[in-house]
Design goal:
57% strand; 11 strands; mainly beta; 7-stranded mixed β-sheet; 119 residues; 4-stranded antiparallel β-sheet
Length: 119
């Protein structure tokens, strides 16, 4: 069991910045992928960014150059620095922990944190 707690969401004006944090606890493991996903009202949840244990990152095209994902393995935490925010970035942001064991994929999700970009 992995527990994830997100923080850092809020209301920000277009062009502003926010930093999301996600703290993991429980059976986190040593080789795992952490990621951020988001779900806007009335839309499907979509991938924002992921970071593997070796630091390899992956970003959705819509956030490349504006968002940066990072992790602290000692703290079992993952972060999402969001710059140049746009109204279309408004969504609930979810942290995800993914581990593969014996060929099976296990995902754990946080409760989500609301990000609203509006003037």
């Amino acid at each position: 069991q992995v527990q994830l707690v997100e923080s850092g969401g809020g209301l920000v004006q277009p062009g502003g910045s926010l930093r999301l944090s996600c703290a993991a606890s429980g059976s986190v493991g040593s080789l795992y992928i952490m990621g951020w996903h988001r779900q806007a009202s009335g839309k499907q949840r979509e991938l924002v960014a992921t970071i593997a244990s070796d630091g390899t990152t992956n970003y959705a095209d819509s956030v490349k150059g504006r968002f940066t994902i990072s992790r602290d393995n000692l703290k079992k935490a993952v972060y999402l620095q969001m710059n140049s925010l746009k109204p279309e970035d408004t969504a609930v942001y979810y942290c995800r922990h993914r581990v593969t064991r014996l060929g099976l994929v296990y995902d754990s999700w946080g409760q989500g944190t609301q990000v609203t970009v509006s003037s």
